[in-house]
Specification:
Elements: H1 2-27, H2 44-61, H3 68-81, H4 86-104, H5 113-130, H6 135-151, H7 155-171, H8 176-187, H9 196-210, H10 214-229, H11 233-244, H12 251-262, H13 268-280, H14 283-286
Helix pairs in contact: 1-5, 1-6, 2-3, 2-4, 3-4, 4-5, 5-6, 6-7, 6-8, 7-8, 8-9, 9-10, 10-11, 10-13, 11-12
Length: 288
């Protein structure tokens, strides 16, 4: 009987870890973009810490998982040194999410994933206790709650998360991170929680800011996919054609979409696959 209870407990723990990792993969896309748009002006010391945290994020996004322990340790020290700095706590939450992902990858310790993924939202909540209008912390926490709530069939949690992301955009409409969070999280939500108008607004903002970069090409394909999904195939085709002529790695995907359009339509499985990969396969936008 004890063995059965132990097995059941382990199964529940594994389920929790898988849920949190699913959520992480959906929200982590915003980690490596600009640190601008933070609500609180940092001190000179915290500014240095946040700058180094950004470098750790960039290294993590390009596949260097070995930086995560230093990344987390630096921010744990920073939160102790400046316990009332909302920006540092927001960065701490991001670092814990990275730590959770590292634990799930080859060479990591899966037992470390659940504590890290619990610490991440807790750090974001601490940032919001200090500054309730910290747009980035609000957006990231909202993304976690929206996706976790939908995955766990907890509608109140999911709706609260969506409301938090919407509020974050109201607070910081020109923040790339905030826009990325709402756009990519929203596209991953069940239909009942999605807002096509908000998704279109965020994707259009991101395309404009991408300035014809590799990242912008993939976002443009996602915008075209949304056009197709909402019954606007001609607008979708126009966007696919732009990317198809770009010569970037995204061109092949765009041409495949055009071929599918000519043959009757694009499979939703293909659209969802790209949306999922955009959050999990960082080299799509950030290079090899």
């Amino acid at each position: 009987m004890d063995c059965q209870r132990t097995a059941a407990l382990r199964a529940r723990q594994a389920s929790k870890i898988l849920t949190l990792i699913f959520v992480f993969l959906a929200v982590v896309v915003a980690l490596a973009h600009s640190v601008a748009g933070m609500a609180q002006a940092p001190s000179s010391n915290s500014s240095d810490v946040l700058g180094r945290a950004m470098q750790y994020q960039l290294q993590f996004r390009t596949g260097n998982m070995d930086v995560v322990p230093e990344y987390v340790a630096m921010l744990e020290a920073a939160t102790k040194a400046e316990p009332d700095n909302a920006d540092v706590w927001c960065a701490m939450g991001t670092a814990y999410l990275a730590q959770g992902a590292r634990a799930m990858l080859p060479g990591g310790n899966i037992a470390d994933a659940l504590p890290a993924m619990q610490k991440g939202p807790a750090a974001l909540r601490r940032a919001l206790q200090i500054n309730p209008e910290h747009a980035e912390a609000l957006s990231r926490l909202g993304g976690v709650q929206a996706l976790m709530g939908s995955f766990m069939q907890a509608p109140a949690m999911a709706e609260r998360g969506v409301a938090q992301m919407n509020r974050a955009v109201e607070l910081a409409p020109d923040s790339t991170r905030v826009r990325l969070q709402r756009a990519f999280s929203g596209l991953s939500l069940p239909d009942a929680l999605r807002n096509h108008a908000a998704e279109a607004e965020d994707l259009d903002y991101l395309i404009e800011g991408a300035d014809w970069s590799r990242a912008g090409d993939y976002v443009r394909i996602m915008r075209a996919d949304l056009h197709f999904e909402t019954g606007e195939p001609d607008l979708a085709r126009a966007q696919y054609e732009i990317v198809g002529k770009s010569g970037s790695p995204a061109a092949a995907d765009a041409k495949a979409r055009l071929s599918a359009l000519d043959q009757g339509g694009i499979a939703m499985s293909d659209i969802k696959a790209l949306r999922s990969a955009a959050g999990a396969k960082c080299t799509m936008c950030h290079g090899q």
